[in-house]
Fold these 2 entries.
Entry 1:
Amino acid sequence: MFEKLQRAFWKALTPDLIAETVAAPVQNELSVGVLSALGGADNLKSQQRVALTRVRVQLQDAGRLDEQALKAAGVPGVMVLAGGVVHLITGL
Amino acid sequence: MTATQPLELLAPLSGVLLALDTVPDPVFSSRLIGDGLCIDPTSQTLCAPLAGVISNIQDSGHAVSVTDDNGVQVLMHIGLDTVNLAGQGFTRLVQEGQRVEVGQPLIEFDADYVALNARSLLTLVLVVSGEPFTVLANGLVEVGQPLMQVSPGEAIEATDEEEGDALFSKPLTLPNANGLHARPAAVFAQAAKGFNASIYLHKQTQSANAKSLVAIMALQTAHGDTLQVSAAGEDAEAAIKALVTLLVEGCGETVAAVAEAVEAVEAVSSATLLRGVCASPGSAFGQVVQVVEPELAITEQGAGEAAERAALQRGLLAATEALQALQAKAAGSAQAEIFRAHQELLEDPTLLEHAHRLLAEGKSAAFAWNSATVATAEQFKALGNTLLAERAADLADVGQRVLKLILGVQDSAWDLPERAILIAEQLTPSQTASLDTRKVLGFVTVGGGATSHVAILARALGLPAICGVSLQVLSLANGKQVLLDADKGELHLNPDLAEIERLEAARQQQTLRRQREVAQASLPATTRDGHHVEVTANVASLQEVEQSLTLGGEGVGLLRSEFLYLDRNRAPSPEEQAGTYTAIARALGAERNLVVRTLDVGGDKPLAYVPMEAETNPFLGLRGIRLCLERPELLREQFRAILASAGFARLHIMLPMVSLLSELHLARKILEEEAAALGLNELPKLGIMIEVPSAALMADVFAPHVDFFSIGTNDLTQYTLAMDRDHPRLASQADSFHPAVLRLIATTVKAAHAHGKWVGVCGALASEALAVPVLIGLGVDELSVSVPLIPTIKATVRELDLADCQIIARQILGLEEAAQVREALSQYHAATVESSSVLEH
């Protein structure tokens, strides 16, 4: 009981610390449009929700990424980084 | 009016634009720092949005501000909580004081590193100098694209003139209900124009030319804002005096009770900070929520004795039911206990007699009940004792509950805003019970102390709280953004970003540290050089014993037996007592110590079933062992009950407040007689508390006659320094870190060890991580600490080195005062923590 309460308050106090650890395993399925713009599901090495507003994906081949198609699929911002890492800005 | 050219700010980054309101960080969304925009970046180089001088760049490289020649200042803050990264992932390309061109790169950052290691990348672009602006873009922006158009008021133009010898007024609180809107602003500007001096009105980091109506309005002041007036020039002093008076009087608007306002302002003067006493540690940044109880209208004359008697009966019955319901859903055992005590107050015969006498005189039920509770509460308070004064607050609370039921006043559930810092003269248990604690970040009260309900509740919830704050706090406007730093006992009314971030970072580190400590709680408390220190628990119930074991407690170093039956009107039966001790001993098991302190009551800690006469100076009266020897049958019965648990744990009995050797001899004789009567062939260990200087000084004389000592630092401190720990003016000096107290501990340990006896510390000092090195260094064998702190104290011991502790302890005994001791220990602590966190990496 006390522990539950304690946890509730820590959560209220530090939403970032607790909410994220809980949210992490629940992966957001990317929509079909987004997946295909990223070069298909098999081009995806990993995906992870990060920094409140982003989905961080790692691509096998960054060359297969289609930025225009991503925007069309409803991802307002895209940040292409080194090593096949791409941040999809999905908003709050 | 000389119009300054509008200024275009260029986007410092590419990315997605967001409104400031949506930023999930109240420091920014509240606009405390300033108004502006937020960009979720897709580029990794932050560029200057305007030409100017780098007025500030954080060492950690996560924030920078640029000020142009007209005084427009723009702050850019990359990411949320990025201060915690301590510079990792950021590269500064410019230095403070450097002049930069628009578009010049200022900071490079590794977006992937920040995204993976900080809370967010959301980057704030804030016009901290306060000029109004319009937004020129939406959706996606490219770096260098026009972002905002700032209209520098004439306010800014004159900034240079004022530089130099500007005089500043003391801060004052704006009394106008709607802030300085057009009419009062015009009155103010008109008055300012009457002076030659250049005059500015300041609100936090923003300022406005006081002679400009538009500039004043652009400040967007609100009721309760803290303002300052500055002036430079010949008649500066006269200008400030006149304008401050004008502001306080409402600038031509009627403001609630001007006389009071003036007083309040004088009191608030220089108040960007209010001080109190820490009731529960921690810190929080949130908004003021004032808690006010409605006044109840009570008619004196009743509508017939029978009807009023029935009304009172109904009220009492309904209150009893409500209190039972509250106990059932109480947030913790502490709270449930409080409501059970309240329920007992409802049956108090003196209270009911008083009320019924008034009913017989034809008074109304409400009047009779109110008079009875108020009169009794006054009696409690008049006894001049903190603990009883707290009970007076309970009585007032119960009184109010029944009164509302009689009068049919509905208790409206509080509709709290998010991030509330509750401010009240005194919060009652009933108020806190109906609280939506998810929305509360902290408590600030005028009354109360470390033993008040607010303090107990706040500690149970892990929320920061301060008590004993001056009355001015009640005049703070609802919704005002404040920073509560309970560790220092401070409430900051105009917190700055750096301070908020520092506390935020400290809190997060503390949370992580706490998680690590709890995870490692079962490890032994052994110093790096292999010296084991026993860490045990201070407990007052079986429940706490069980909790202590899950948190790594190695036994019970202090069982406060008087708390087992605190709310009783009658002494518990011998069987019941024996049952309680046995249950606790069984929970611990035969391998662990159980130290039971015999009843420690007296005039300052009264027990309902041990009636005693009032004393003029209860702290120097019949307390602890003195009272028990005065009523030996009480002590005998308790010994019998404790002895019933022999064998289930390693039983120790401890006598409180011993100051004379004869007391120890008498008590031992009684114990031996009771043990013989029960046919025990082995006596439990018998020790004494060292909490009176005479006992510490004579420890070498006591040592051969005891099995152990346990030092009660709270009383030892107050008796050594002759300062009441609860005294409002002396409390801060009644510090257990005083070298005099530490020398007595050293004397005690030396005497005990010379006779092969062990020494524990069960006072509050043992629960302070800062004190651990000196206690270990002095040779203390056991630390008995409050249950939640067991993991912390054990972790602290594991970081230390006995040899170092002995050196620091020797040095500290030679210092002059408590502050120096704390300083020395803080430095030592910083050094050990630093080196141990390096080890972890």
Entry 2:
Amino acid sequence: MSSLPQQRPRPVGSRWLDRIFAVTGAVAALLSVALFVSLLWDLVRLGLPELSWEFFTGEVEDAGRSGGIAPLLVSTLWILLCCLTLAIPLGTGCALWLSEFVRRGNALARLVTGGVDLLASVPSIVFGLFGMVFFAQTLGLGFSILSGGLTLACMILPILVRTTLTALESLPADLRPASAALGLSRTTTTAKVLLPAALPGIVVGITLGTGRALSETAALLFTSGYSTRLPESISDSGRALSVHIYDLALNVANGGAMASSSALVLLALILVVNSAAVALTGHWLRRRHATS
Amino acid sequence: MTSSRNTTLCRSVDRLVEAVLGLLALVSGGMVLLIVWHLLAGAWPAIAAGRLGAFFTDAKWQPGSLRDPQFGVVTMLVGSSLVTLLAVVIALPVGLATAIFHRFYAPAFLERWNRRMMELLIGVPAVVFGFWGLMIVVPAIVRVAPDMPGQSLLAGGIVLGLMILPVIALTSQAALQAVPTTLLHAAAGLGLGRARTIWSIALPTARGGITSGVLLALARAIGETMAVVLVCGNIPQIPTSLFDPIRPITSTIALEMGYATSSHKALLFCAGLVLVLFTALFVGWLSFRRNDTDPGTGGA
């Protein structure tokens, strides 16, 4: 039972190199975690002392140095509603047409897909310019919640189209012939079979779009305006929470504390929305995995 | 009889639905044309007045000055390019090293947590990044260089770099994950160590995906407004050091659109057009690369 000498061949490339790689990688990974934690911690540290019930229910006072953010929350919500009201039908309709009503490789469909992809690359400040000219001036909607919402709708459209397309394309391929064999028309198939099956994916898209719309500032500067009053209708100007942070940080001396609190609220909102999107995707994938 | 009538009804409903959805799709796909059209219309007064020459050759940007109005976009183009470049220089090594660490060294649960964190980090609003930069990064820079204002090229680069870090880290990691395991096994079979395998096999194979991620990050960084407008200092000049204030194109539009009139306004639309051209260039390059390197072969 003499054991052979256990000598493995030494790997090419020194152990030291491997160690250097491991340490560098670990340092970089730690650094990115530290930055994220620092971002969160700083915002909590700066913003939490100002947070109170009055902050959520109060009017904006003294250009934002005191008071609360109630009207801004209302404006933000209205902007979001206007945005989703336009973006959901447009995005879903576009994706349904691309996926169910044209052949793959159709020239027009490729143009539409290319257009949507290009739209995704347009910088948000340019959406702001466009919204100002098109919605506020050409269509005569003025500096209003409606203008801002519609501008954001154009901006999140690519997200909705992409996620809906992905959801439709990942449906089992035999759904369509099976539905056709039952004598269902294309419209019925789409409305009663495909849409319900793709709904989780569409909801994820809407959630992602909501997060994007909530976080947008540049596109709203010249469309929904700066007014801090409680909006009476969607044709009033209304300041979104993100615009409030920008304004306090740039234009208001000693606005830092209230800006921190607003940033904390906005960040919390967006983390909730985005975590919901991540959780929904996970849930949906698991369910798909379980059924297939 | 009724069945055939039903069929015709269904068919006309189908056709109607198809027409409506097709219309929605055309509106969605044509939106970008509408945007470019309105930018062109907004910029037209400046183009028609022959200002484009001055736009690209004037040394300074002082459109409001009565004595010596100058309309040069160059300082801002340089500002945008430098801050974007600096952001990539900061984010690429950190992001790539993070991706390598999580792909080849870290346990699986760490990789999962990191990915989740990065996905959340991507969602953090630009204005929050900018505000954080103003409150934390700028004072830190003042501490290092006490006689400078702190709001500077460096501050912009750091904040923007932090913003694109998750994009680069996630795309690099996806690219490394897509390297066929057979290749890695073959390398191990040949007796290559882990570091050598990463350096000579994994990174070259994943290069296409990593480059795509960097291009994506570039497109995002150059169009970013809120993160830079709060921390860059907004003085339109060619910086001579990292601590000098600069002003990117996006900041100029955000700062001046509110009060700009006539020819000044048209020039801001020209600046918007330049910005769209820039991002379209990156995205065009990206999709060209995608077509070039078929995803089926992993770009190898």
